[in-house]
Design brief:
The protein is α+β, with helices and mostly antiparallel strands and 764 residues long. Helices cover 35% and strands 20% of the residues. It binds zinc ion (ZN) (2 copies) and fe (iii) ion.
């Protein structure tokens, strides 16, 4: 029946931008509108959500006031515009189903940590008391269980579980919090856990929680199936156990992540500022790198002053901590070092079960593997290091049309990216493609993205490096391909994140990346836009003796630098610096350097940090990627403002820097101080070179990217100092500055070049 639209009624249009799609926003608006007896519509559009409402003036006002206060936890509002409209003839409030494909894509939401209401239901709702798969429209698994679009239960790994009448009632009732919550489940109809210990199977959930807690308290290692893959868990205060876990999963030095009971507990052990706390508690529940206050067992993290920490995000995590007599657990990815995180139950039984003392599994399949995401906070901004669970596959809005572009990514820390209109969809973290299992994961994920997002690749873009397996993969697609320089792609990635499409000063500091002169680049100052780049200057070329293997042996890079600046006699001149390094090995590396055999040239910033880390005897041989620079940063004294000399003469040379560092070392200066002074030196040289570039070009926008900018001391100081002299500074936040962000840059460059190509005939 049509409502009488008498005078005195109010009509409003509300346009909301932000994270409002695929997070239960429309049903939320529907329920709120119904509560206030309003009529109208809500629908998704390209930029967000549009609401038309009509009703009593008071009610409309109240409705508008309540939206921002009551929005679903996983949503956020960046823009909220209310305007007056003419009355329409709505008879009811309805959700207008989105028709266009790009809207469907946004429905592939990332996974969302269990919400407060569901945790309440797990205490009160008879069929959900202690039920560890409780979820609703506002929370629960999404991307990890989605097999195809449109997103409904039949196309997820929830398909085998037939809803019981009471779940179906909630699922079909638009006024219910579980309306169209595809993974809706309860203890009667949903998936369940099984604990396997010493060949015995336990399926009673409360017994499982108790037994798991006791095992962990008693120093046992438990494999636990998580949201995007398996974890291995143990007691972080028990050195024997943690050391044992390192041996069993053959993980030498890389720190383990921890999960804390809650933020208050975490604060007893870690220094956490407001921004870090917000990030830690966000519905995405990333691992956040935080400064250690109270020590854990030594084997949890050696030589670093930070530890990756997260809070419970699955119902089971909450149940475990209610029972557990520990403030935190080690929760590390369930895999053998360098292999992808395990998701398959059978594989877990074959590989993880022998490693663990017990295995906790459940009978819902994980379809899309996602690791825990990792972030830190610098200059009060979130900085993603690994973009995976609860972030992927949220699209990145870009200015250019990227339809049909496939960006293959880098090799070591791979993510790929696909273009759908103005959206760049980054894959979850894939990993090091040189590992066979990881390469298979890459190939499989590309296929899945093609199907899930109805993506037909028309143009491929990949790294210039012909040996990168991602480049080879792109070449085999048999579609037109563009090859782009690694550091140009880093800068373009940051530009795309901030929708820049103009000429900028680009500073890319990184461990590696093939240059267009055949050398290995990584200390690069570029003048570039999305189409092309010019190299303004770079770190002086130094031979990298033995090629890629130096990254495992930072002392070789130290020898390369010292040999470069002090000549063949360097070892006899400074014997103290080489104390403890095998003489025969030194001879071997010296031979490579003198004869220039197998010693490609590099301008890499990462290699410079390696050399300094080894020189200070902080890290001479590393057991995981970027260990030497990370440990150098960890010991650096940030209070000192002193710095070393360097030379800029066409390129940047560190002869003076090494001379003065060695003088400091030989007079017994603290290594912390030297490390601090070295960091200041790099900050200063960036500032000076940026000034020169501004003078030379008139450009005022500086774009920072590359893995070296994950160094918090460097990033914070460079950003602050550049801003002090009125540069506009852009540094990555939601996209990693390491190679995990490369694919976005590749995509942006390809989109730009294609656009210019199309313009060409009109110009001539
Ligand atoms: Zn919920
Ligand atoms: Zn049910
Ligand atoms: Fe890189």
């Amino acid at each position: 029946m049509r409502l009488n639209l008498a005078m005195g009624r109010t009509s409003r249009k509300i346009r909301i931008k932000g994270l409002v799609q695929g997070v239960g926003f429309r049903p939320f608006i529907y329920r709120l509108a119904k509560n206030h007896q309003l009529v109208g519509t809500v629908e998704n559009n390209n930029t967000g959500v549009e609401i038309l409402v009509e009703g009593k003036a008071d009610n409309v006002e109240q409705f508008i006031r309540e939206i921002p206060v009551q929005i679903p936890e996983a949503s956020s509002i960046s823009e909220f515009i209310v305007s007056k409209i003419k009355p329409s003839d709505f008879s009811d409030f309805t959700i207008t189903k989105s028709q266009s494909l790009s809207d469907e894509i946004t429905e592939v939401s990332p996974d969302i940590a269990v919400c407060k209401s569901c945790l309440q239901d797990m205490k009160n709702q008879p069929n959900r008391i202690g039920y560890p798969f409780t979820n609703c429209t506002n929370c629960g698994p999404r991307f990890t269980i989605i097999q195809d679009l449109p997103y409904d239960r039949e196309k997820t790994t929830m398909r085998p579980f037939e809803m019981c009448p009471s779940c179906r009632e909630e699922y079909t009732n638009i006024l219910d919090r579980r309306f169209h919550a595809q993974p809706v489940a309860c203890s009667k109809c949903g998936p369940h856990y099984t604990l396997i210990e010493k060949g015995e199977k336990e399926t009673d959930i409360s017994t499982i929680v108790k037994t798991t807690a006791r095992l962990l308290e008693d120093g046992k290692i438990v494999a636990i199936k998580g949201l995007g893959g398996y974890h291995l868990a143990c007691n972080p205060f028990n050195e024997k156990t943690v050391a044992e876990l390192r041996i069993r999963k053959s993980r030498e030095g890389k720190p383990f992540a921890l999960m804390f009971r809650d933020a208050e507990t975490a604060k007893q052990f870690l220094h956490i500022n407001k921004k870090e706390e917000t990030l830690l508690m966000s519905w995405r529940r990333p691992i956040v790198l935080l400064k250690i206050k109270e020590q854990f067992a030594p084997s949890v993290s050696t030589g670093l002053d930070t530890i990756g920490s997260m809070l419970p995000y699955m119902p089971f995590h909450h149940m475990l901590f209610e029972e557990l007599d520990l403030p935190a657990i080690v929760l590390t990815s369930g895999n053998i070092t360098d292999e992808p995180i395990i998701i398959d139950n059978q594989e877990a039984m074959n590989i993880l079960h022998p490693i663990a003392d017990a295995s906790l599994t459940y009978n819902r399949e994980i379809y899309n593997r996602t690791d825990d995401s990792v972030a830190f906070v610098a200059n009060n901004k979130e900085r993603l290091i690994r973009r995976s669970r609860s972030y992927a596959p949220s699209p990145v809005q870009i200015k250019l049309n990227a339809e049909g572009i496939f960006a293959a990514g880098a090799e070591l820390v791979n993510c790929f990216c696909i273009g759908k209109g103005n959206q760049a969809i980054m894959s979850q973290h894939i990993g090091d493609l040189k590992n066979l299992e990881t390469l298979e994961f890459y190939q499989e994920s590309v296929e899945r993205f093609k199907r899930l997002f109805r993506f037909t690749p028309q143009l491929a873009v990949a790294d210039l490096h012909p040996d990168y397996l991602s480049t080879q993969f792109a070449k085999e697609m048999k579609i037109p391909i563009l090859l782009v320089q690694h550091h140009h792609a880093h800068i373009a990635s940051c530009m795309a994140e901030f929708q820049l499409d103009e000429k900028v000063i680009g500073i890319s500091f990184d461990g590696t990346g093939l240059g267009d002169d055949g050398n290995i680049w990584g200390g690069e100052f570029l003048i570039c836009d999305l189409n092309e780049y010019q190299r303004f200057t770079h770190f002086e070329y130094i031979p990298q003796p033995g090629g890629d293997a130096v990254s495992k042996h930072p002392w070789r890079m130290m020898l390369a630098y010292l040999h470069h600046y002090f000549g063949d006699e360097v070892v006899s001149r400074f014997p103290l610096l080489f104390k403890g390094i095998d003489e025969a090995e030194i001879e071997g590396i010296l031979f490579l350097l003198k004869s220039k055999v197998n010693s490609p040239l590099t301008s890499s910033a990462g290699r410079l940090f390696d050399a300094v880390s080894a020189l200070l005897n902080v890290c001479r041989n590393s057991t995981y990627h970027a260990e030497a620079p990370m440990r150098l940063e960890a010991i650096a004294d940030e209070k000192t403002s002193a710095l070393y000399g360097f030379e800029f003469d066409g390129q940047i040379s560190f002869g003076k820097t090494f001379e003065e560092m060695i003088a400091d070392l030989l007079k017994g200066e603290e290594t912390a101080k030297i490390a601090g002074k070295f960091h200041n030196t790099i900050v200063q040289l960036i500032v000076e070179v940026a000034e020169k570039m501004r003078k030379h070009t008139g450009l005022n926008k500086v774009v920072l990217s590359g893995g070296t900018f994950q160094n918090k001391i460097l990033l914070e100081n460079v950003e602050q100092k550049l801003k002090e002299i009125n540069f506009a500074v852009y540094s990555q936040s939601g996209i990693p500055s390491n190679d995990g962000g490369i694919a976005l840059g590749q995509l942006a460059i390809a989109a730009k070049r294609r656009e210019l190509e199309k313009l060409k005939p009109q110009l001539s």
